[in-house]
Amino acid sequence: MTGNDEREPPQNPWAKPNQPDPTRHPQESPWDRARKNRGGGPAPDLDDLLQRARENLGNPFGNGMHALALMLLALLALWFASGIYVLQPSENGVIQRFGKYERTQEQPGLGYHLPWPVETLTKVNVSLDRRVQIGFVDSRASGQRQDIADESLMLTADANIVDIDVVVLWNISNAEEFVFNIRAPEETIKRVAESAIREIVGQTRLQPIITQGRDQVAARIQTLMQSVLDGYDSGVSVRQVLIQEATVPPDVLQAYNDVAAARQDAERFQNEATIYRNDIIPKARGQAIGILQDAEAYKQDVIARAKGDAQRFASILEAYRTGKDVTRDRLYIETMQRVLSQAQRIVVDQKDGSAGVVPILPLDTLRAKTAAPEKPAQ
Predict the structure, then answer these.
(1) pTM of this prediction?
(2) Which DSSP symbol is given to 248?
(3) Taking the mean position of all CA atoms in its chain, how far away is CA 109?
(4) Is 163 left (phi over 0), alpha (psi -120 to 50) or beta?
């Protein structure tokens, strides 16, 4: 070897026999050589390309380190990009950092949080009205309603049984409380609703529940449910309680009708008795007042007559002491005048030949007049 000869690069001690040495052309990759072969030679073998790629990645001092770094950077970029999220207008985002509450994103649009597992995002739809059914289940496939007796049969305040179906509409008012303070929300709200319904129905008579009092009963159920859920810090708002149906179960319908008829009869009898009482009591009070007034008038009349008789007797006595004969004659004449003024008088003139007339005395009439009490002198 002369000085003008080019020195060949040293052989790679790690090169395999009968395999090209990648270190001899460090700037030429297998893909570059494949590109060259595409222009002037046959297409490279796929197995050969895979083998060369494995060799390059396995060389800590070659192109493998560069490719691995690029892959790691790409994965890191994807990891950071995984924290990008989009909130819809109806959603709130609850962000946790290592499982602990960090913040709540309420504004819709694009947002970012640190990638998992540093921070996690829980999207909560706060505008959707959800519903819970108590006492029945709607079958959307068949369009029929299936009754659930264990939930719908309840006891009222007047010891009657009512079959009641209720729908509760609710939504989420506080995303943070809803995520952290309530577990199995559908089941929890259903149990709270069933408990509230049984309590209110147990305090109410049957008639208002199955007639015009449904709205008042539903409002009381809603108030009680909201109070219980607020005590749980559940972040749930009860929007509305609807009583879909409230009837008497068929098994006890006949007994209920009998009781209702008896109750109506009792109310009718009570009303009739009240009307009779309102009619007879004023009459009796009026009669009592009239009797009292008559008695008082009779009392005053008797007293006045007694006083008058006493004064008359005293005056007659005084006159009699003054003139006995005159007073005696006057008393006789007044007495005869008083007696004869009430007697029936018949005058028969015997001078006209009526001597043969035999008078027929009306003994019955005279006896009746004689038996009648004499009217006291005024």
Answers:
(1) 0.53
(2) -
(3) 39
(4) beta
CATH number 3.90.226.10 is the correct assignment for the domain at 130-248 = no
Report the C-alpha gap between 178 and 173 in whole angstroms. 8
Number of H helices, E strands in the chain: 11, 11
**pLDDT single digits (tens) 78-136:** 888 878 888 888 888 888 888 888 888 878 878 877 888 888 888 888 888 899 999 88
Q: With 60 as the cut, is the pLDDT of residue 60 above it?
A: no
Q: For position 13, what pLDDT does the model report?
A: 47
Say whether pLDDT at 375 is over 60. Answer: no
Is residue 106 within 8 Å of residue 127, measured between CB atoms? no
pLDDT, tens only, 148-192: 888 889 999 988 889 999 999 999 998 888 888 888 899 999 999
What does R_g of the chain's alpha carbons equal in angstroms? Answer: 61
Residue extents of the structural domains in the chain: 30-80, 84-125, 130-248, 256-326
Encode 142-154 in three state secondary structure.
CCEEEECHHHHEE
The string of DSSP letters for 110-138 reads EEE-PTTTTEEEEEEESS--EEEEESEEE
CB burial of 47-72 (b: ≥16 within 10 Å; e: otherwise) equals eeeeebbebbeeeeebbbeeeeeeee
